[in-house]
Amino acid sequence: MKKRKHDGIRGFLPVRAAKSWLAGDAFVKLTPLLWGVGYIRRRQFVKGFLAILFEVVVVMFSISYGFPNIAKFGTLGTVRRETVYNPATMKNEVNQYDNSFLILLFGLVGLIVLAVAVIILMRIVAEARELQQKSEQGAHISTFREDIRELLNQKFHITLLSLPSLGIIVFTIIPLIFMILVAFTNYDQQHMAPTELFTWVGLDNFKRLFNNSLSETFGYSFGKVLGWTLVWAFFATFTCYFGGIALSLMINNKRTRVKKLWRTLFVICIAVPQFVSLLLVRNFFADTGIVNTFCSNVGITDFLKSIGLVGAYLDHIPFLTEAGWAKFMIILINFWIGVPYLMLIATGVLMNIPTEYYESAKIDGANALQTFNRITMPFMLSVTGPYLITSFIANINNFNVIYLLTQDVYFTMDTKLAASNAKDIDLLVTWLYRLTNDYYNYKMASVIGILVFIVCAVFTLLAFNYTFRKGREGRFQ
């Protein structure tokens, strides 16, 4: 007798779940009320118990936190926190107030939990119908042990990825969505939960960021900070990149002696924690630091005054206290910190370039510059292209160098920047940090955070698309 094939309902999950429910028996139709009843009817007791347990958790969370906060999600609360005199206790008591922050957070979590619960319920309904069909056709229904064995063998990748995926949802996706939602509210120091309420304002914060007037200077500040951020990222990336290659070539040159000593000296720079190096360098280049003292004693300060690079009214070089000097020094100090790391990467790549290429170039009469342009640099780019892209993105968000070198040292003289709590040497990420940590302007910080993400995402997509365009990555070979 020919065994009939299982005729399961396939397709889009909501359609499949609806068809399964309509075509199912009484136990399938009862599944939306008691999620595990379809499993229990087909003697899959463990899966049925787990489904019912998950249903209980979802219902309890929805009743306790989900529905109450979702109901207030549209307004983010209407009752302010107040102290009210209670005649019964003859004491001042805090009223039952709304916390806009918790309403936004738990409302968001409640919506996500409901969405996940609906998707899981639809899968359960579809599986309950499939189990019914198998039972009617006399097909084998897997036991709990068989399901566990399958999760540890054929579907082991799903088992391994489940926990990391849950972690990404809880610790990355939900906070990211929460931050995006804050950008559409008026959450700032004047609307600080729980003492005050904040509410939705739509696109007003984005309009403020692109508006430039006497009362609203965020548009002016955003343009200047974004421009400096891109300039900084470009120079910080490529100075270290080409500097590391040049240093590696010099150390690995046949005429260079004690190569291990030179490598060791530069590796020591990497071993020292970056924040320690930056704080020390900040003290060295302070207005009364050792570098300024030395420059004043040997006449460098007076020379720079004579050519107009230092103001005549100053008795020191404003390495970290004047915008032009500070930007130059930040790039220079970052070069000193970043070159050793790039030197190690370049050394590893250069050691893997086949010597036959250089020998062939020498036979063909190529000079050192031609060899570098035709062999060394193409090979370096083919290997380190992805690193170059990620390094540029990392420098856009390079918080340590800017903040540690200039915090409590640099003070902007631009009144428009100061009105927006920004500085000439700020990157978007340091401006964002200052808005949240010092001025509690969460709404504008969230808007800037969204724009930082857009800038990084657009550049990454374009750069990787260009780098890995069909045939480009293998062109050197």
In short:
This protein has 477 residues and is mostly helical.
Describe this structure in words.
The chain has 2 domains: 13-191, no CATH class; 207-285 and 320-467, MetI-like (MetI-like fold). It has a two-stranded antiparallel ribbon with strand order 1-2. The protein has helices at 13-23, 26-30, 37-41, 45-71, 100-137, 144-151, 156-182, 204-209, 218-251, 259-271, 274-284, 290-298, 300-306, 323-350, 355-363, 368-396, 399-406, 415-419, 428-437, 442-467, and strands spanning 83-86, 91-94. Strand 1 (83-86) and strand 2 form a beta hairpin. Mean pLDDT is 87; it is low at 1-8. It is mostly helical. Helix 9 runs parallel beside helix 14 (323-350) and helix 19 runs antiparallel to helix 20 (442-467).
Keywords:
two-stranded antiparallel ribbon, MetI-like fold, mainly alpha, 2 domains, single chain, disordered N terminus, 477 residues
Topology:
Elements: H1 13-23, H2 26-30, H3 37-41, H4 45-71, E1 83-86, E2 91-94, H5 100-137, H6 144-151, H7 156-182, H8 204-209, H9 218-251, H10 259-271, H11 274-284, H12 290-298, H13 300-306, H14 323-350, H15 355-363, H16 368-396, H17 399-406, H18 415-419, H19 428-437, H20 442-467
Antiparallel strand pairs: 1-2
